[in-house]
Amino acid sequence: MKLCEECRKEAAAVFLKLAVNNKITEMHLCPACAAKKGMGFGLETGAFNIGDIVGNMSGYFKDFLPPEKKTLRCRGCGLKYADFKESGRLGCPDCYSSFEAQLVELMARIHGSAQHTGRAYAGGAELKLSKAEAARRLEQLRAELNEAVSREDFEAAARLRDAMKRLGNGHA
Predict the structure, then answer these.
(1) Residue 142 domain-assigned (yes or no)
(2) Assigned domain for 78 exists
(3) Range of the domain at 95
(4) Domain annotation covers residue 140
(5) Which residues pair with 14 in a beta bridge?
(6) Which residue among 12, 29, 99, 162 has its CA within the 20 to 30 Å range from the CA of 127?
(7) How far is it, in rounded angstroms, from Cα 129 to Cα 41?
């Protein structure tokens, strides 16, 4: 049984391991000392909330950011990269382009790759069209449908009919 590194009296129940710039730091604390350092995880009461752990640990990571990442800001909303690292939330759509290099690096570290390799959502590839563009495409599909029926190409006509239904329901 490991003793708390702070008080050296109680048994350590909180084990924190940080890996920053290939340097690993470990801390072994009792619940009381962990709470004093702002890492109260509900161990005293038996309640456990993963959000508390992630939220409380984020302050420790901020100290290890290189200076150029501490001052990096979003062009759109002004969010600092250090604030993103602390909260885990981006402020606006421009944050994705402002922090692109850092986000790619982060995704590669978390997932092992920054390129999506999983299954794709069935409706994900379709674009949302404006009403004018949808009306134009619907008219084009009607003309192609009439032509397919006149040629008696009923398979093509069925595909065009289905495409018109999807377009009419706002799925394309």
Answers:
(1) yes
(2) yes
(3) 70-111
(4) yes
(5) 29
(6) 99
(7) 47
Phi-psi map region of 78: left, alpha, beta (phi>0 left; psi -120 to 50 alpha): left
Burial class, 30, CB count within 10 angstroms (exposed 0-12 / middle 13-18 / buried 19+): buried
The verdict on 18 and 50 lying in the same domain is yes
pTM (two decimals): 0.34
Question: What is the tens place of the pLDDT at every residue in 24-57?
Answer: 778 888 888 877 776 655 444 444 444 444 444 5
pLDDT for 48 equals 47
Q: Where are the alpha helices (DSSP H) in the chain?
A: 31-36, 50-62, 67-71, 81-87, 94-98, 100-111, 131-150, 154-168
CB atoms within 10 A of CB 107: 14
Same domain, 107 and 138: no
Q: Is 103 part of a structural domain of the chain?
A: yes
Contact yes or no for 157/148 (Cβ under 8 A): yes
- Provide the mean pLDDT of the chain: 76
pLDDT digits (tens, 9 = 90+) for 106-138: 888 887 777 777 776 665 555 567 788 888 889
